[in-house]
Write a structure and sequence with these properties.
This protein has 248 residues and is of the alpha/beta class. It is built from nine helices and seven strands; from the N terminus they run βαβαβαβααβααβααβ. The structure holds nicotinamide-adenine-dinucleotide.
Length: 248
C-alpha cells in the first residue's frame, strides 16, 4: 500500500496500458480517477475490478483530452469526487500511421492533439494545485518511437519526442515545489494499439528485442507505480525505458 491516501488520475484508463496502470495504482492504495473518451462500459469494468480488491476506490470521468474545455469540466468533476489530485498519468494516446509523403495535415494534427496537446491540457489542469500543496507526481507515457523515430510514424514520433522535452522542462520548473515530472518510454507492448501490426513487422521488431518478447501492460504499470511513489522524491526529469532492451 505504497500509495495509500493518494489520489491519481489516469487518462485513457479504460483499456490497455492505462487500464493496467489504474489497477496497479489502486492495488497500492491510491484512489483512481479513470478518464475515458468513449467506452464507458470498459471504464466501469476497471472501477469494478478496483472495488473487488477491497478498501479501494475508483470512478470514471469522460473527456476528450485534446479538448481543453472538456478537460476543465473533467477536473471539476474529479475534484468534487476526490477533493485533490496527487498523481497525474498522461497515458491517453493514438496512432495514425502513414509514410510522411502520404501524411496529410489532418492525420498529423489528430495524433499531436491527443498525444502531446492532451498532456498539456491535463497538466495545466492539475499542476497548479499540486504546486500550491508542494506535492505532485506527473508521469507522461512517451514511447521508444519518440527516442528512435520509426518509418510511417512521423506524427506519433514527433509527439512522443516532444513529450520528453515537456517532461524535462516541467521537471525543472516544478522541482523546487515538490512536484516531480518523469516519463516512461514503453517499447512494443501487446495492446489493441498494436493489434493491427502485420505479423511480418512484428517478427522484425521481435528480432530486435534482446529479451525476445513483447512487453505486457503490467510491465509499464510497475514503472509508473515506482515513479508515482514517495520513494522517488529525488527523481525528476527521468525517462524510464520499459522496452526489453530494444533501445538502450
Ligand atoms: P490503447 O489504444 O489500448 O489505449 C489508448 C487509450 O487512450 C484508450 O483507452 C483510448 O480510449 C484513450 N484515448 C485515445 N484518445 C483519447 C482522447 N482524445 N481522450 C481521452 N482518451 C483517449 O493503446 P495502449 O497501447 O494502451 O497505449 C497507451 C499509451 O501507451 C499511449 O500513449 C501509447 O502511445 C503508449 N505506448 C504504447 C505502446 C504499445 O506498444 N502499445 C508503446 C509505447 C507507448
Amino acid at each position: 500500500m505504497r500509495l495509500k491516501g493518494r489520489v491519481a488520475v489516469v487518462t485513457g484508463g479504460s483499456r490497455g496500458i492505462g487500464r493496467a496502470i489504474a489497477l496497479a495504482l489502486a492495488e497500492e492504495g491510491a484512489a483512481v480517477a479513470i478518464n475515458y473518451q468513449r467506452n464507458e462500459a470498459s471504464a466501469k469494468e476497471v472501477v469494478q475490478e478496483i472495488e473487488r480488491m477491497g478498501g479501494r476506490s475508483g470512478d470514471i470521468f469522460q473527456a476528450d483530452v485534446s479538448d481543453p474545455a472538456q478537460v476543465l469540466r473533467m477536473r471539476g468533476a474529479i475534484l468534487q469526487r476526490f477533493e485533490r489530485v496527487d498523481i497525474l498519468v498522461n497515458n491517453a494516446g493514438i496512432n495514425r500511421d502513414k509514410s510522411f509523403i502520404n501524411m496529410d495535415y489532418e492525420t498529423w494534427k489528430a495524433v499531436v492533439s491527443v498525444d502531446l496537446d492532451g498532456a498539456f491540457h491535463c497538466t495545466k489542469a492539475f499542476v497548479v494545485a499540486m504546486k500550491a500543496r508542494g506535492y505532485g507526481r506527473i508521469i507522461n507515457i512517451s514511447s521508444v518511437v519518440g527516442q528512435t523515430g520509426n518509418f510511417g510514424q512521423a506524427n506519433y514520433a514527433a509527439a512522443k519526442a516532444a513529450l520528453l522535452g515537456l517532461t524535462k522542462t516541467l521537471a525543472k520548473e516544478f522541482a523546487p515545489k515538490g512536484v516531480t515530472v518523469n516519463a516512461v518510454a514503453p517499447g512494443f507492448i501487446e495492446t489493441e494499439m498494436v493489434t493491427g501490426t502485420p505479423d511480418e513487422v512484428k517478427e522484425k521488431v521481435l528480432a530486435q528485442i534482446p529479451m525476445h518478447r513483447f512487453g505486457k501492460p503490467e510491465d509499464v504499470a510497475k514503472a509508473v507505480v515506482f515513479l508515482a511513489s514517495d520513494e522517488t522524491s529525488y527523481i525528476t526529469g527521468h525517462v524510464l525505458n520499459v522496452n526489453g532492451g530494444l533501445y538502450v
